[in-house]
Amino acid sequence: MKLYYMPASCSLSPHIVINELGLEVELIKVDHTNHKTEAGLDFYGVNPHGYVPVFELADGNRLREGPAIVQYLADLKPEAGLAPAAGTMARYRLQEMLGFLSTEIHKGFIPLLYARLAGGYVETARPKLEKRFQWIDVHLAHRLFLMGENFTVADAYLFALTGWGQADWLKSYYKAGIHFDELDHLKAWYLRMRQRDAVRKSIAEEGLAFD
After folding, report:
1. 117-176: per-residue pLDDT in tens?
2. 207 Cβ contact list (under 8 Å, min separation 6)
3. In the chain, how many H helices and how many E strands?
C-alpha cells in the first residue's frame, strides 16, 4: 500500500491514521511545485486532479479523497476503534463531522491560503472560518476528542487543518491569516493531540517539527 503526500498538507490526516494503526505503507512524497514524486513520476498520472492524498491499495485500486481514505483505513482494523461500525448512527455522526471538516474548514481555508489571488474575498471568508472554529472550540468544551472520549479519524483531519492557522501554542506550517489564540478548548485538544505517538511520528516522517 502507498500514501502519496505533501508535507503539512491535508494528507497528514491519513498519515496519522496509518501510524495509529501500525500499518505498513510506503510514503511517496509529492513536490507541490512541479507535481512530481521524488522518483520523477508525474503525479497527474496518479491523480488527474493533482492534489493529495492518494492512497493506493495492494491491488492497485486508488482512493483520492481524505474522508474516504481515513474511513477505509479505520475499517482495516475495526478493533482499534478509530471509526464506529458501518451502518450505525455513530458512524453517520463521524461522517457528518468529516463532511463538516471537509467543506466548512478545509475549503474555508482556501481563500486565506491564496490571499493574494483571493483579494477582497478574504475579508468575507475569514469571519466565516473563524465562526466555524469557534463552534469547534465550544464543541470540545466537554470532550477530549471531536467525537467524545476517544480519538477517531476526525481528530487526525482536524489536526492537519489546525496547523495551517496561527496561535502562540501551535506550530504553523502555512501561516494562513487566521488566529486561534483565544480558543482555549481547541488549544487543550491540540496539546493532547501532539503528545500522541502517531502524531509525533507522522510529523517527523514528513520532515516537520513542532517548534
Report:
1. 899 999 999 999 999 999 999 999 999 999 999 999 999 999 999 999 999 999 999 999
2. 7
3. 9, 5
80 and 74 in contact (C-beta within 8 Å)?
yes
- In the chain, the largest separation of any two C-alpha atoms, in whole Å, equals 48
Please compute Rg for the chain using Cα positions.
Answer: 17
End-to-end CA distance of the chain: 31
Angle at 203 between CA 166 and CA 188, to 5 degrees: 50
From the list 77, 126, 73, 62, the residue with the least C-alpha distance to 98 is 73
CA dihedral 76→77→78→84, nearest 10 degrees, is: -70
Collect all residues with Cβ–Cβ distance below 8 Å to 165 and sequence separation of at least 6. Answer: 109, 133, 172, 176, 178, 179, 180
DSSP state of 5: E
Tell me the whole-structure pTM to 2 decimals: 0.97
Tell me the C-alpha distance between 23 and 209, whole Å. 22
What the chain holds in terms of domains, given with CATH numbers, is: 2-80 (3.40.30.10), 89-196 (1.20.1050.10)
